[in-house]
Amino acid sequence: MLLTITNTRIPADDLSYLLHKHPGKIQSVETSAGKAHIFYPEVSREKCTAALLLDIDPVGLVRKAGPKGNDFALEQYVNDRPYVCSSFMSAAIAKAYSSALNGRCKDKPALVDELLPLSAKLSVLPVRGGEKLLKSLFEPLGYTIIATQHPLDPAFPEWGDGRYYTVELSNIITLRQLLSHLYVLIPVCDNDKHYWIGKDEIDKLLEKGGEWLPGHPENELITRRYLKHQRSLANEALEILVKKEDPVDEDGSEAGEDRAAEEVSEVPKPRIHDQRLQTAKDELLMAGAKRVLDLGCGEGKLLKLLLAEKQFELVMGMDVSYRSLEIAKDKLKIDRLPERQRQRIQLIQGSLTYRDKRLEGFDGAALVEVIEHLDEPRLASLERAVFEYAQPGVVVVTTPNEEYNVKFENIQQGQMRHSDHRFEWTRKEFEAWAAGIAVRYNYDVIFKTIGEVDPEVGSLSQMAVFSRPVKNAQGII
């Protein structure tokens, strides 16, 4: 079984630093089932390919396995384990590429978070569920997939195709993310594992998939297959995955931000979070949107405002936190709405850093105080998920203005407004980011202020409104 990983970003041989494997040597590591050999079929400044060849000892495999008591008595001797990418390959990835999988790079540490044009090829991968399953697993993560199905036996074409595929996956992604996806999803495709599953397997799943699995639309299927359909283990893992708390106060506002804003002026002002929500709703109304998304909807405050407007025919809220969605469902009283109203609202669990086909075909979308809760290297994934794949007609994005923090007496220099914020941008930084999106994904963008405005440091919050260029009958903008 063979896994190759190719990098085409110059200098492409940076891949060898990330993998901690010298391109001029053939290296081998022992695994529980045999040996894994690492070598480089191609190394140049323009293109670098690393290969992981797993050589399984079938006799040793049987001796180690011992009697299994399966219905098929010869299964230990008649199986595909020595020839396909299965959980043995996941174990080999963890052993051969442990530093890369854990996000360590001694010589060039900055490379760990670099988005690279990577492609991985698996020869061959057993897929119980066919190409449809492959796409449901990898497409939400942003991959382009080429799957070549192999016949059961080329000498007997009448037998039809088998469940074996040569799979090529391409994505702009970090190497650490690619390896974590492969580590978890290879045995999920196979729907089997070569070893006994215990509670420690939950820890492995959470360690390797904790960043991306909670927001994956197929997280339940992945969890159950990874844990070999052991219901108690799968339920325990799923409960942990959905426990991520929404990083806002109970009423939906950033912790302490409104209290700080009140200290700036003696005159009571509308709550800043309410102003953001109202402004986002007004922008969607003015754009004429009818089908709208609230991305990172939390406990549903914006959803409630949107549902009150007859213009919006369908309102969909998405959040990574299952608990927040349950609270939103309760606060919106969805179960008690008339049938016609209930058909206007949908709540889905998902992550903004992965492609999700459920988000496609909408007129508008709002991301109210969402982006600052992501690590900056992951913003590129959000950009692709929203602006390249979902492509709403209008997108409203709000985020705090870092320059305004000097007006808060209870915020020290360098401190952020909320403990979960990964960054806070100045007006220039936000405008540069938004302008880049507009160029890359063919949007127009304008900037507006929200909340109190200071002549020197700007407004309390800042907003970008992205819209598709208008074309006339001749297709000219």
Automatic annotation (TrEMBL):
It comes from the Bacteria. It is an enzyme of class 2 (transferase). It catalyses: small RNA 3'-end nucleotide + S-adenosyl-L-methionine = small RNA 3'-end 2'-O-methylnucleotide + S-adenosyl-L-homocysteine + H(+). The lineage of its organism: Bacteria, Pseudomonadati, Bacteroidota, Chitinophagia, Chitinophagales. Keywords: Magnesium, Metal-binding, Methyltransferase, RNA-binding, RNA-mediated gene silencing, S-adenosyl-L-methionine, Transferase. This is Small RNA 2'-O-methyltransferase. Residues 256-268 have a biased composition (Basic and acidic residues). It comes from Terrimonas ginsenosidimutans. Belongs to the methyltransferase superfamily. HEN1 family. Its EC number is 2.1.1.386.
